[in-house]
Amino acid sequence: MMNQMKKMTGLAGVLLLLGILIALNAVLRPMRLRADVTEDQLYTLSAGTKQLLGALDRDVTLKFYFSKSNDRLPVTTKNFAARVRDLLKEYESRSGGYLVVEEYDPKPDSDEEEWAQRYGLQGQALDMFGMGGQLYFGIVAVSGNREAAIPMLAQSAEPRLEYLLTRMVSEVAAEKSAKVGIMSALPVNGSVPSNPYMMQQGGGAGKWAVVSEIERQYDLEQIDMTATNIPADVDALIVIHPAEISDDTLFAIDQFVLRGGRLLAFTDALCITAQESADPQMMQMGMSPPQSASDLNQLTAAWGVEMVPGQLAADESAASLLSAGNGRAQRNATWLSLREAQINREDIATGSLNEMMMPFAGVFEVAATNGVEVAELIHTADDGYTASTMAARMGKIDIPSEKRRVPLALRLTGSLSSAFPDRDGLKQSEKPGIVILVSDVDLLADRIATDSINFMGQTLVQPRNDNLSFAVNMVEQLCGSEALIGLRSRNSYDRPFDRVIELEKQAAFKWQAEEQRLNAQLQATQAKLSQLQQSRDDGQQLFLSPEQEAEVKKFREEVFQTQQSLKEVRKSLRRDIEMLGVRLKALNILGVPMLVAIFGIGRGWWIRKTR
């Protein structure tokens, strides 16, 4: 009887525990509890995104279009979609109910597919013959009558995915489109020829491509170079080559920045575009051409940054090949062709850029200033140096012994002081200011940034490099929410087996050495055979001589031995990788039980000791 009571009590305890677990699961199921233990915090939103989502005051819907019912989707695409879905849910949970995520599967000829197309999403064929169907993989943000979309998500853009999503949410949640002012001493908005006859013939320069690109996305307003006030409704101001700018205009820019406006300034120590834009008729009339140098030192010195007059940045690793006349080409270290090594890959605004061209870029000097944080966006290599504008003009640049990394584009954030403390106005920025300084103007010019092609009688403009993308990214960041400034570029979600890759590299190196040895033997043998062939008698044209037969036999033997060596290399590679896999499996299978056993033994020993 007692045994039966014990069994009943034990069964009741098990059932009670099971009931508690079921109830706990029901309570906790709606709650989204998780911990990000990845090394780079890949699944944790940046502080800027959390700030934006927490400050939402209007409803935003993120529509995720993904062809999940297509049975021909690659596994990598499915995994990527799962990560996108997880990130979207994180946005939803952080929004306080203002952001809702909806997922759609746009099957062929469905309403979902029609809506995806109306939003501008594009189906992509899964194979070259179109037999795998269409893949829709995009996101649309909707708030009221404002919309924004990512037409197709590419896995290569995954490090910037949070930035793209946050930018969309910021764009549709804003009450109106941002207004951008543009101020320049160059004809960036197009020029009208001074000769009436040329005007009738359609002469004059057209609007710069970078201006047209910015105009597509923002409300653009031209501001005169002599302006003494920047309109209050301008969100961001672009200044391009401010040559001979007056103190009153500088003061207007100063006050614009201090009251919360964002500034993007392109200055230059040697602007070839300014020289090329000079009107010959004006020069014949005795009027001086536009200055080739410009800076905002009088303004930026108060923020701890100045451009060094008469100095250019030089980088041998980024030197461009230019024509030196008479059919000769010469590398010029001051005409910079910048690659990934000279671009800040950690910053979200420049992390997607791969190639930029900056002819005769100036040199920034940065001094420590309290309250101002300076970030380098573009720079030379660590062994860069400076050269005078005179030396660059003459093509005679001496490489100095002292080398350093030279900053070419900077972003300043923080509390900014007025450069005109004696004038009536703001003395300190009302809120953290944002200023981006670039030491080159020519990078924006069409002949540096774009290529023009003739297509069926029409002139099409396409980017030559990432110069336009850089400029648009900068404007995009300044016109968006402050949250966009602090966003980081995420590292790769792929975690490769470094040890396996290293083994493959070592084996490939051995393989390449063996292959080179085989090719050398083949060439030597062919040369020997040709020599023997030339020394033969005419009557031996159809027969191999004993020497040839011996040489061929020797060659075949060497080929066989080399093939055996290659097989051994491949076997060694597989053996090393398989042994590594066995060790990892053993660790995964036995590691946890061993840890539990060690913990149990240790705990038992401790209990026995303390009794």
Characteristics of this structure?
611 residues; four-stranded mixed sheet; alpha/beta; 39% helix; seven-stranded mixed sheet
Describe this structure in words.
- The chain has 611 residues and is an alpha/beta fold.
- It is 39% helix and 20% strand.
- It has 16 helices and 21 strands.
- A seven-stranded mixed sheet has the order 8-7-9-10-19-18-16, with helices on both faces.
- Helix 8 links the parallel strand 9 and strand 10 (262-266).
- Helix 7 packs parallel to helix 14 (467-479).
- The two termini are 35 Å apart.
- Mean pLDDT is 80; it is low at 192-204, 282-288 and 537-542.
Secondary structure layout:
Blueprint: H1 2-28, H2 47-54, E1 60-66, H3 75-94, E2 99-104, H4 111-118, E3 124-125, E4 134-135, E5 137-143, E6 146-150, H5 161-173, E7 179-184, H6 196-200, H7 209-217, E8 219-222, E9 236-240, H8 247-258, E10 262-266, H9 272-276, H10 280-284, H11 297-300, E11 305-314, E12 319-325, E13 328-338, E14 356-359, E15 362-366, E16 372-379, E17 385-388, H12 389-394, E18 407-414, E19 433-438, H13 446-449, E20 450-455, E21 458-463, H14 467-479, H15 498-534, H16 546-610
Parallel strand pairs: 1-2, 7-8, 7-9, 9-10, 10-19
Antiparallel strand pairs: 1-5, 3-4, 5-6, 11-15, 11-17, 12-13, 13-14, 16-18, 18-19, 20-21
Helix pairs in contact: 7-14, 15-16
- The number of helical elements comes to 16
Order of neighbouring strands in the sheet with most strands: 8-7-9-10-19-18-16
End-to-end gap: 35 Å
- Mean pLDDT, all residues: 80
Query: Number of DSSP strands?
Result: 21
Overall 3D form? globular
Relative helix content: 25-40%
Largest sheet: 7 strands, mixed
Oligomeric grouping of the chains: single chain
Q: What Rg do the Cα atoms give?
A: 34 Å
Q: List unreliable stretches of 5+ residues.
A: 192-204, 282-288, 537-542
Structural class: alpha/beta
Percent strand equals 15-25%
